[in-house]
Model the fold of this input.
Amino acid sequence: MSSATKVHYICQTYVERKPGRDGQVSLKIDKQFQYSTASEAQNRAEREAVSEDCAGADAYMVSEDLNSGEVGSPSFLVRLGNVPEFDDF
Done:
């Protein structure tokens, strides 16, 4: 059995959506960037998190099984600012 897996390093940013009927401000994914190293993804998340229109940013890695196309659960490198609960991911 071959272990054909690829690791993806991702920076994902969030913006706040206007409050809905329930008055809750929700977050939505704004941008996603893919990098070849963990440090690149983490550095981008740190830069994005301080920008004015960004509510928060995550840098994480996921493993993809190239045979089945299945992607594993994210392993967070850094979570900055206002980010969704992991359950909402």
Notes: The chain has a mean pLDDT of 92. The CA atoms of residues 14 and 29 lie 5 Å apart.
